[in-house]
Hints:
The structure is a single chain. The chain is of the alpha/beta class. 35% of the residues lie in helices and 15% in strands. The chain is built from ten helices and twelve strands. The protein has helices spanning 29-39, 53-65, 87-101, 139-151, 165-174, 193-201, 228-237, 241-250, 263-269, 279-288, and strands at residues 5-7, 13-15, 19-20, 43-45, 75-80, 106-111, 116-117, 134-135, 155-161, 181-185, 205-209, 254-256. The strands form three sheets. An eight-stranded parallel sheet has the order 3-4-5-6-9-10-11-12. It has a two-stranded antiparallel sheet with strand order 1-2. Helix 2 (53-65) crosses helix 3 (87-101) and helix 3 (87-101) crosses helix 4 (139-151). The chain is globular and about 55 Å long.
Amino acid sequence: MSVPSVTFNDGNKMPMFGLGTYLSKPGEVEEAVKCAIQVGYRHIDTAFFYENEKEIGQAIKEKINDGTVKREDLFITTKLWCNSHKENEVVPACKQSLQNFGLDYIDLYLIHWPFAFKSGTELTPRDAEGKIEFQETDYLETWKGMESCKQQGLVRSIGVSNFNSEQLERLVASAQIKPVNNQVEVTLNLNQKPLLEVCKKLNVTVTGFSPLGRPGNRYGIKNLWDEPEIQELAKKYNKTGANIACRFLLQRGVTPIPKSITPSRIKENFDIFNFNLTPEEITKIEAMGTGARVAPFTEAKDSLYYPFKIPF
Length: 312
């Protein structure tokens, strides 16, 4: 099945559906990625912070070696973690990810969060009281390192993740190479309509993580795809609630990257390209949104660059 693609402001293209791998445990993620590629997924999303780049690289290598895909068929996204935000730390961090994957280039490299932690090898450095140790490195400095990654051919495209509208506007205004993508939480609860409008105006595409709302999330946020209105649509189109959630993103120009490690779900989630929600149904779903986040990262709220101090 052919997956639609979106064209970035640098001319590169990204498949508008992918496999998310956050919290996919060691030993599980390799099989999940191999299964996804076999099903037809060509876009795999990960991050240095997820600590699964090596396993994903192994899965990619196996599917290339067995002839299922070529490297150029795949679109691999990974992200710079918060402990490498100084300009001179970005290229080495990118090279470490490339080494983990065993790849020559990354298709899309993102700044994972706009705020920075204390530099070093600890993913989440903490002080004696257990609080995260921040350093207020400006993400504009970090971006210069991202631009170097592209200029050196380590990555095809560069972008950001979890940036609010003001942060994105500030970055676009000063960047030598414009960001092509902002990966943010987009769910039935958090439909991100105002932020999507800003991104469109700036010619920045949007990837939506946790499109299924992370069932069983630690914040107890209710999953709307179990609601009667969504289940009615699922019945109408002979789809699952998860399919409706992902199709809702897709039709609003957002690339969904649902995470799963279960082969049947990986296959099921991919089944969204043969139906269309009506404009009225889209509007109805938008009205259901509560604005609740499953990824608020409240531990970082004291950072100067914490993105959720403003509504969008």
